[in-house]
Design goal:
The protein is of the alpha+beta class. The chain is rod-shaped and about 205 Å long. 25% of the residues are buried. Bound molecules: adenosine-5'-diphosphate. The site of adenosine-5'-diphosphate has 22 residues, from helix 12 and helix 15. Adenosine-5'-diphosphate binds next to helix 12 and helix 15.
């Protein structure tokens, strides 16, 4: 039984009890009063009959025997106790007392009913009789005339009490039945009333637990039905709002996931509430970084103070910070306060500008290098030209100066040509072909073209093809002109950096799905630490030597760009003093 059922049953039982008690009390006292009234009336009638039957028998003690007989007779006829009281209150006969015992009966002048009778009124008195020891109702009438005597009748009230007790018993039984009925009714009624309430309670509990598809679905149109409808409406609204929130959240998460910028959100207590994937990648943060502080997670004092500045001020803060771990990076951080939102805090967007800054630096370096390289021959040209203009020089010297002028202008031309070439390849403006190129015959032709220069420096050359490579197997998908240029550059370097009498070998071989050309020399070699950098623009191991040999420092940069543009790779292996091997691999023709 539920608590409400208990309360309802208790209330109904209380009501039934109260009604039974009040009704019982009223019924009981009403019944008693009516019965007494009836007894009084009949006593009065019977008294008058007794008085009539007395005739003129005087109330004197000497006549006690005769009076007793009358009293006893009257008592029998009237079914009551009859007492004769003489003037002054002395009892002269009593149907309940033998004449011999009369002397012991006390004077009755002070009995209320006797006093009233003597004063001419008729009054009842109810009390415990001292003479017979039971509750009695007394009623006295004066004898007619001036005798001052009184006839009193009394009846035993036990019958009335018994009747009242009977009634009380019946009332109690009725009350008990009423109580049981009330309890049963309360149980049934409250059960009926509570069933929809219980359904509503369970539905609400489910809604509170997040099961938003639960409904009461009441068909009743009463107040409970209206409450049920309100609950169902609330459930629908909750479901709609939640779906909307989920959709918005998913959208936001998709946006955050797809962003190239890192996003960090911190709440009003300085704890991370959101870190998108990009941010976690940037700083190698764990998946569960939420809840920690940015200082704990990223360990960067400047970032911490930037976030504090953003949280304190109303203007967004933009700064570029350098991070050394997990990788050296330059990051632009844009942080703004979220003070107009409920949770407060800061949102910061991280943009990795490492590559941008690197490219800027590379461009600056390139401009500086290029201008420097161009200025060197230009300064020489200006110097010699000035000397030629201002001074009268002997013909032989003039000729030598003019020769130097020519050399520098040629170098200037070479530089500009290389720069233009590089810029063309780099910018992608030069469209490279993709045709089948037989690398063996390309290598052969390149060697043939440069033979005079090799011979000039007494360098022996050899062309070798790798094992298992048939005639058609050494064909690559490439641009023939670019391949020529690459081979020419590499062979040119081999000539420049190999002492006279040295050896240069050109090896063409198959390497998986690639065709490889190695240009091997036994020249001066390249120190290990420079190997990684010689493909950079203007990078030279020995500037003076390169320049003296007419080098620009751009040859290998052009080679790398051309090879990579054809989908190939270039690398170098070298031992200082022993020689170098430059390897170019290009995609093989299918
Ligand atoms: P350069 O015009 O100076 O030759 P490159 O870009 O062709 O410019 O070469 C860059 C540098 O690499 C050269 O200055 C030289 O120091 C080194 N180098 C290139 N090829 C060789 C080689 N075969 N042997 C030794 N050093 C080489």
């Amino acid at each position: 039984m539920s608590r409400i059922q208990l309360k309802l049953a208790a209330a109904l039982a209380g009501l039934a009890s109260a009604v039974t008690l009040a009704g019982g009390y009223l019924a009981e006292s009403g019944l008693r009063a009516r019965q007494i009234e009836q007894i009084e009336q009949s006593l009065d009638e019977r008294s008058r009959l007794v008085i009539e039957s007395l005739g003129d028998l005087p109330f004197e003690p000497e006549r006690a025997e005769a009076l007793y007989e009358r009293a006893a007779g009257a008592a029998h006829a009237a079914n009551a106790r009859v007492t004769f009281i003489a003037r002054g209150g002395r009892v002269v006969a009593d149907s309940g007392v033998a004449p011999a015992d009369l002397a012991r009966v006390e004077n009755h002048a002070d009995r209320p009913e006797v006093r009233a009778a003597l004063e001419g009124r008729v009054e009842s008195s109810t009390r415990l009789s001292q003479t017979v020891g039971r509750p009695m109702l007394y009623r006295a009438l004066p004898l007619p005339g001036e005798s001052g005597a009184v006839v009193r009748l009394a009846v035993d009230l036990s019958q009335v009490d018994a009747a009242v007790a009977g009634l009380r018993r019946e009332l109690l039984i009725a009350g008990a039945i009423g109580l049981a009925a009330a309890a049963a009714l309360a149980f049934v009624l409250s059960g009926l009333l509570l069933r929809p309430l219980d359904v509503m309670r369970r539905t609400l509990a489910s809604l509170a637990d997040g099961k938003l598809d639960q409904r009461v679905r009441s068909t009743s149109r009463d107040e409970l039905g209206q409450i049920a409808d309100a609950i169902d409406h609330m459930g629908e609204q909750l479901e709609l709002r939640l779906a909307e929130l989920v959709r918005e959240k998913e959208q936001l998460q998709a946006v955050l996931r797809g962003m190239v910028e890192g996003v960090l959100v911190i709440d009003g207590h300085g704890r991370i509430t959101l870190a998108n994937r990009r941010l976690r990648e940037l700083f190698d943060l764990p998946e569960d970084v939420e809840g920690t502080s940015p200082l704990e997670a990223i360990r960067h004092a400047e970032l911490e103070s930037l976030l504090l500045d953003a949280a304190a001020g109303d203007a967004p803060v933009l700064r570029e910070l350098d991070f050394s771990s997990p990788r050296p990076r330059t990051v632009r951080v844009h942080a703004a306060s979220l003070e107009d939102t409920r949770a407060g805090g800061v949102v910061a967007v991280f943009q990795d500008v490492t590559e941008v800054r690197r490219l800027e630096a590379a461009r600056r370096d390139f401009v500086a290098n290029a201008s420097h390289e161009l200025r060197t021959p230009l300064t020489a040209i200006q110097g010699f030209a000035e000397t030629l203009v201002s001074r009268d020089l002997p013909a032989a010297e003039r000729k030598r100066y003019l020769g130097i002028l020519y050399q520098h202008s040629e170098r200037l031309g070479q530089l500009i040509e290389n720069l233009l070439e590089l810029s063309h390849v780099e910018s992608g403006r030069r469209e490279l072909e993709r045709v089948d190129v037989d690398l063996r015959s390309e290598a052969d032709r390149a060697l043939e073209r440069m033979r005079p220069r090799f011979e000039e420096r007494s360098i022996r050359t050899r062309l070798v093809t790798g094992p298992g490579a048939g005639e058609s197997a050494l064909t690559a998908r490439a641009d023939p002109r670019a391949v020529d240029q690459v081979l020419e550059n590499l062979l040119d370097n081999a000539i420049k950096y190999t002492e006279p009498g040295g050896n240069v070998e050109l090896r063409v071989s198959l390497d998986g799905d690639r065709v490889r050309i190695d240009v091997a020399d036994d020249g001066i070699g390249i120190p290990r630490e420079d190997c990684a950098r010689i493909f950079e623009r203007f990078y030279r191991v020995d500037k003076a030597r390169s320049r003296a040999l007419g080098g620009t420092g751009l040859g290998l940069a052009i080679v790398r760009h051309l090879v990579e543009s054809m989908g190939g790779e270039v690398s170098v292996k070298s031992t200082p003093g022993a020689g170098s091997v430059f390897s170019v691999s290009l995609p093989r023709s299918p």
